[in-house]
Amino acid sequence: MIVRIGFIGAGGIAQDHIRVLKKMEDVKIVSVFDVNADNARRTSEATGALVMDSADQVLDKQRIDLVFICTPQFARGELEVVAASRGIPFFVEKPLGVSAEAVRQKAKIIRETGIIHAVGYVLRYYDTVRQAKQYLEGRRPHLIQGTRFGGSHPAKWWKQLEMSGGHLVDTATHQVDMIRYVAGGINKVQAAFGRVSFDRTEPESTIPDAGTINFFMDSGAVGSLTESCLSPFHASSEIKLFGPDFFVHLSHNGSHLTIIDNERNLTVTAELDPGYAQCRALIDAVKSGNQALILCDYDDALKTLEVTLAANRSSEERTGIVL
Ligand SMILES: NC(=O)c1ccc[n+]([C@@H]2O[C@H](COP(=O)([O-])OP(=O)(O)OC[C@H]3O[C@@H](n4cnc5c(N)ncnc54)[C@H](O)[C@@H]3O)[C@@H](O)[C@H]2O)c1
Fold first, then answer.
1. What's the confidence (pLDDT) of residue 243?
2. Would the CB of 43 count as within 6 Å of ligand 1?
3. pLDDT digits (tens, 9 = 90+) for 209-226
4. H/E run at residue 224
């Protein structure tokens, strides 16, 4: 079976997916829509996909087996729900949106359709992250520390809080998700976000330039995540998990794993390209009808979104938020 794919949104991340999909022989990208006609045209030239006049046309005009929804989180509308309701499996990028309530409503409908789908928490597909998750099964860290420092996304939408949600909701969401994936749920957050430098360097932006979030885990563990998208001289992203008789460190976005305990002191680097593994799992799921191949579904991604949006609210209201 050749899986026929449509793309809605053909910006930066869509091109990453297309590069990977083009390596697969059982895949054909057949249609694309983007409000930016140049991006749609370039994608069409690179793949042979037909350029459509609307997102609806991608879903309707010719048969597709899978749609990639790669528009920014403020510009998804009801696309996932429309695809699911028409029986079209979908991939949607993280984060799921900028309103938890709107996403919750979509989640309910998607769940009821039982459609095959995936959300782009791509770091879950690192073999190192899987290894950390397996190691932590049956072990309980008491402290978790995460960080993410780096630069900003170049697009204008990204620096508007109501469009992106900010660096935590859009980007450091990967670290929140990794913490949840390897160590379980988060049920309370207290956050502080600031804008010391952006007021001067990016006066038209509305996102914070730094933040720190304290949280409680369902396991009883406590943790923190510190992040900034204004760190020109230092970029890193990692999580550290401390137990009474072990230490687990996922660094370089999860591609490096160190485990230290009384029996081992090992460091491994990822052998898998998580972007490839993510697309491969999805294509195989579409072909076999087996959702279990997919490591992050809509309901799971909603929980990560809820943590990050609660952090935004916590800082705004200067109070802790129970999830
Ligand atoms: N999983 C990851 O690691 C990862 C990495 C980067 C981006 N992302 C996510 O992917 C999404 C897109 O990010 P990006 O970096 O590609 O952004 P981008 O700005 O590079 O591209 C977005 C594209 O969507 C198009 N678009 C906007 N509104 C549209 C609409 N209503 N209909 C059709 N097309 C529309 C734009 O014209 C643009 O081509 C965001 O949600 C982002 O958080 C995920």
1. 98
2. no
3. 999 999 999 999 999 999
4. strand 222-228
- Is residue 160 within 8 Å of residue 205, measured between CB atoms? yes
Given the candidates 3.30.360.10, 3.40.30.10, 1.10.3720.10, 3.20.20.70, the CATH classification of the domain at 123-272+305-322 is 3.30.360.10
Q: Compute the half-sphere exposure of residue 172: CA atoms within 13 Å on the CB side of its CA.
A: 35
Q: 3-121+275-294 maps to which CATH number?
A: 3.40.50.720
* Portions of the chain given CATH number 3.30.360.10: 123-272+305-322
Query: Atom 27, ligand 1: which residue's CA is nearest?
Result: 71
Separation between Cα atoms, residue 124 and residue 277, nearest integer Å: 10
Q: How far is the CA of 241 from the centre of ligand 1 (A)?
A: 32
**Could you tell me the pTM of the whole model?**
0.98
User: Using an 8 Å Cβ cutoff, are 72 and 47 in contact?
Assistant: no
Report the separation in Å between the CA atom of 225 and the middle of ligand 1, taken as the mean of its atom positions: 25
Mean pLDDT of 218-246: 98
Write down the mean pLDDT value for the chain: 98
For residue 269, which of 288, 249, 289 has the smallest C-alpha distance?
Answer: 249
| Residue range 152-168: mean pLDDT, rounded | 97
For residue 171, give the ligand 1 atom closest to its CA: 43
Pick the closest to residue 195 from 183, 184, 187, 207 (CA basis): 207
Q: Whose CA is nearest to atom 21 of ligand 1?
A: 11
pLDDT of residue 31: 98
pLDDT in tens, 98-147: 999 999 999 999 999 999 999 999 999 999 999 999 999 999 999 999 99
Instruction: Give dist(CA 153, CA 162) in Å, integer.
Output: 15
